[in-house]
Amino acid sequence: MAMMTGFGLIAVLVGLAGWAGGIPAALRYSFGFGCLFFLIVAFGVAVRDSNHRDGDIRTIAVGGIPATELRQSRRLWVLLVALMTCLTALSLGAAIEIYLNVSSSFVPGAAVVFGLFGIFLATFLVVVAARLLRPGYVQLTRDGIRHRGWSFESYLPWEAVAGAKAAYNGYRMILVIGYANAAWERRYRTPVWRIDRLPPVPMIEVDCRKFAIDEALIFHLVTHYSNNPDARAELGSAAAVERARARDYS
Fold first, then answer.
1. What is the secondary structure of 98-153 as a DSSP string?
2. Per-residue pLDDT band at 250 (split at 50, 70, 90)
3. Residue 138 and residue 69: Cα distance in Å, rounded?
4. Which residues pair with 71 in a beta bridge?
5. How far lies 183's CA from each of 176, 187, 238, in Å?
6. pLDDT in tens, 107-154
7. Are 164 and 178 in contact (CB under 8 A)?
8. Which residues, 6+ apart, have CB-to-CB distance to 35 below 8 Å?
């Protein structure tokens, strides 16, 4: 992140030098690259900083069924969309700039490459606008657990759940493990931009990095209801939220 910050500052300085030298395009693109580097740094910081917002645990109704919901971080999602928007603008802007400033009867190859890459990146924003990609959640109901990732949906009924545990695979996660013959409902919401993946077996894989909630609290909340069937009667009620805020999982 320190290196990316340095690259961003260098890009800004190069742009200012180019502008002072009578090259306004240098300012535009250097500022664009600087913005890209700073967004990468901000995204990295957001992944590592949960902010411990207990307000992201709430009670809702899903199809008339009450649920206790853990919302994924909106800040992380906004930064991801901003980063992709910046990269799209840089690619399409470069294609247009090259096409307009190269004296040739043919379309320059670089303009084609940047243009096609920019169009591909723009499909990400189209899918986001259609809400096929969106910030997700984990919903706990009396019947089961539903996980909406950025690009997929997954559901396990409680009778198909064998238990839950903490795990680590380069990052902290909670695994709600289903039986091999579980009635596991899952689907990707989009054929492209599958930016997070379903597990290969019946399982809910909660990536703690994507939540603005204390990781220990996520662990205790999910495992408490996964491993204690009698406690599920309070899911979807204020009691479940109050238990989370009080950290009462003894």
1. HHHHS--SS--HHHHHHHHHHHHHHHHHHHHHTTSS---EEEE-SSEEEEE-SSEE
2. confident
3. 6
4. 137
5. 14, 13, 29
6. 678 889 999 999 999 999 999 999 999 999 999 999 999 999 999 999
7. no
8. 8, 86
